[in-house]
Amino acid sequence: MARPRIIVTRKLPEPVEARLKSLFTVALNPSDVPFSKAKLTTAMAKADGLLCTFGDKIDADILAANGARKAKIIANFGVGTNHIDLETAEDIGVVVANTPGVLNDTTADLAMALILASTRRMFFHEARLRRGEWEGFDITSGLGSSLRGKTLGVIGMGRIGTALAQRAHFGFGMKVIYFNRSKVLVPSIPEAEAAETIDALMAAADVVSLHVPGDAHNRHLISAERLEMMKPDAHLINTARGDVVDEAALIAALESGSIAGAGLDVFEQEPTVPEALMALENVTLLPHIGSATLETRIAMGMRAVDNLVAFFAEQVPPHQVV
Ligand code: DGY
User: Fold this and answer.
1) pLDDT tens-digit profile of 60-98?
2) pLDDT for residue 1 is more than 80
3) N or C: which terminal CB in the chain sees fewer CB atoms within 10 Å?
4) Which residues contact 90 (CB under 8 A, 6 or more apart)?
5) Count of other CB atoms within 10 angstroms of residue 149
6) Ligand 1 within 6 A of CB of 301
7) Angle of helix 104-119 relative to helix 294-312, nearest 10 degrees?
8) Segment (H or E) for 283
């Protein structure tokens, strides 16, 4: 039987590309330039399987594409699938699979780094130093805040939220409260307390960290009203999806100083970052690098390949979403 033809939309780590080549007929993307909508549509119509990632918007038009072939599986590189129209995929029988599990530690590490960067005002100080404005050690200016004894509020106590809570609690002495859509137990942190509501968590936490999926239900979950509930010396950390936060409302809160700071790895209209956000000194901005270590990106790629291998062996992909 002819090998399945897989079209890959972005450059992948070398060991992942080598494994794909050993198993399938593969069209790689050596240039790493994201596909246009037209190119994604053609890919959908010319492949048996599509390996894509965040930023490749797979909407109903693309899913409807038919040609010489028709991709029957979309193996997403990444855990979040909010860029894929899952409902249409399910309706027309296109399988979608993702790569959960292998990026928990890496993403939790980055969330912890953003907590430290924001509470210790690291990038404000770094920028000052680079501008040549550092005049020597001083005792009282630009002070940050300590984490020990403070409260971390985790919204979305899944795998990444739990991994962050463990770091913050055991490594930095923070108290942990959390809100989860469905009831969860956190046996690894017996002291962690479930908040009754998101509003209660917003009001009680010194640091709020977001770990919910980017779906319609969670769009602007952190609204202007909820930002107003935060303590004036609190920090908001987002390594989940940009549209979970009302970005304009967050900018207003940071500008007015109604919260102390924010650490963001994701934005509403990536890769566009609003000028107003760039101009602020109380926000740390990173370009969606939550899972960006070589080890993790290889593990994610291998997981995407595992999904393809299972699918073409007529098995259920280990991480099938729909
Ligand atoms: C994911 O896995 O969804 C990340 O956002 C991309 O690494």
Assistant:
1) 999 999 887 889 999 999 999 999 999 999 999 999 999
2) no
3) N
4) 96, 322
5) 10
6) no
7) 150
8) strand 283-285
State the catalytic residue, choosing from 10, 241, 297, 319: 241
Helix residue ranges per DSSP H, the chain: 14-23, 37-46, 60-64, 86-92, 104-119, 122-130, 159-166, 172, 198-204, 224-229, 247-256, 275-278, 294-312
Token pair in block for residue 244: 């979970």
- Structural domains in the chain? 5-102+294-312 (3.40.50.720), 104-285 (3.40.50.720)
* C-alpha dihedral, 276 to 287 to 152 to 106, nearest 10°: 180
Q: Is 288 a catalytic residue?
A: yes
**What band does 163 get if pLDDT is binned at 50, 70 and 90?**
very high
> Can 219 be counted among the known catalytic residues?
no
Q: Is the CB of residue 213 less than 8 Å from the CB of residue 80?
A: yes
Catalytic residue among 125, 128, 181, 270: 270
Ligand 1 centroid – CA 250 distance (Å): 22
Q: Cβ(160) to ligand 1 under 6 A? A: no
Element holding 25 (H helix, E strand): strand 25-27
Instruction: Name residue 294's amino acid.
Output: L
Whole-number pLDDT of residue 66: 86
Q: What is the pLDDT of residues 180-219, one digit of tens each?
A: 999 898 999 999 999 999 999 999 999 999 999 999 999 9
Which atom of ligand 1 is closest in space to residue 98's alpha carbon? 2
What are the tokens at 261?
């700071």
Residue nearest to atom 4 of ligand 1 (CA): 78
Distance CA 300, CA 280 (A): 34
Q: Is 270 a catalytic residue?
A: yes
Cβ(291) to ligand 1 under 6 A? Answer: yes
d(CA 306, CA 167) in angstroms, rounded, equals 30
Task: Identify which of 53, 107, 160, 241 to mutate to test ligand 1's pocket (most ligand atoms within 8 A of the CB).
Answer: 107
